[in-house]
Design brief:
- It is a single chain.
- By secondary structure, this protein is of the alpha/beta class.
- The protein has one domain (about 5-115): 3-Layer(aba) Sandwich (Rossmann fold), CATH 3.40.50.
- About 30% of the residues lie in helices and about 30% in strands.
- It has three helices and seven strands.
- It has helices spanning about 30-40, 55-65, 80-95; strands at about 5-10, 15-20, 20-25, 45-50, 70-75, 100-105, 115.
- The strands form two sheets. The chain has a five-stranded mixed β-sheet, covered by helices on one side. A two-stranded antiparallel sheet has the order 1-2.
């Protein structure tokens, strides 16, 4: 189990993550956007797509919603700005109380790094 408080089901080769929250940094393009798309295909998972640029982040979420992924939301994040990080943390704490999966897709010269948060 990835974390307490939710349900993980295995159906065939697919794992369904129910009542889970995933945050993807740099989710508006490239690997980050594809990670968001893949995660959003799991309807029991809420995906928080983050990006530095509000317009690009909102546009990426809109494209995912148009593709049928209604479980994706946007929040602005600049990982080099402490205030931006704090605003995201406050949002996540007040809206969800936790995160279960963190995907760092905004690391230069690196493929996406995935962190599973355990209690």
């Amino acid at each position: 189990m990835l974390a307490t408080g939710g349900l993980v089901m295995m159906i065939g080769m697919y794992i369904l993550l129910l009542d889970r929250v995933a945050v993807v940094t740099g989710g508006n393009k490239g690997i980050g956007l594809e990670v968001c798309r893949q995660l959003a295909s799991n309807k029991g998972l809420i995906v928080v797509l983050t990006a530095r640029n509000d317009q690009r982040g909102a546009s990426a979420v809109q494209k995912l919603k148009e593709a049928g992924h209604s479980n994706v939301i946007f929040h602005q994040l600049d990982t080099t700005d402490a205030l931006s990080i704090s605003r995201l943390a406050d949002f996540l704490k007040s809206r969800f109380g936790r995160i279960d999966i963190l995907v760092s897709g905004c690391v230069p010269d690196c493929k996406a790094c995935i962190y599973i948060v355990k209690d």
